[in-house]
Sequence to fold (224 residues):
Amino acid sequence: MAETAPDAVSGPEGASEAPLPSVSPILPCVLGWLLPGLGHLYLGKKGRAVAFFFVVFFAFGFGLASGGTASLIDPQQPLSYLATFDNLALGPLDVVARMSSVGSLVYRLPPDEGDPRRQALMTHLRERVRHPTYEYGNTFLLTAGLMNLLLLLDAFDIAMGRKR
Amino acid sequence: MIRSHFLNLALFSILVAIFFAFLTQNRGRDRVRVILVLGGSMIVLSLIVAYVMYPFPLQR
Fold:
């Protein structure tokens, strides 16, 4: 753990919480990216860390179990860039989602329509779309990514002393 | 998996409400209030929007 600063701000869960460590604001963000809530735990926000971990993890797991699929970049669909970036915000969990939903660690659809890899991926994705709760799963999966993205920004603000 | 629209909506609303309650509030009582108000609002407003959409289907 990092050294404690003398003018540290007390945490949000009460005055008894450990003072804010003086750390690089990047470290909690990296930790939070590796595992949801870990950045907040590092900053001493235990209550928040546990809540965030369970909320993001549940949204992720439920989304995947409901047929949600990791997004792939398709140059013909500009929004796919945002969706893929959103998935990447989940860190290693995105690898799990990609391996279980797409079947391989691929982030981009091959642009050539005749490419057999593209056809294989499209066939796999169409099978996922047939899942009755596919849309729900995608929504939960994307929401988990967005929540973790907000958590990274929140951890950054706490580390910078902008927020308690 | 849950196939009910309403149960998925309720689960999603509660999850998001819990997330924002912990993100924006510091005290337990305030968090419970946010969960109830935000979660309830999302469910009720979604039902209202769904009801308003009923006379305007995408396909005739």
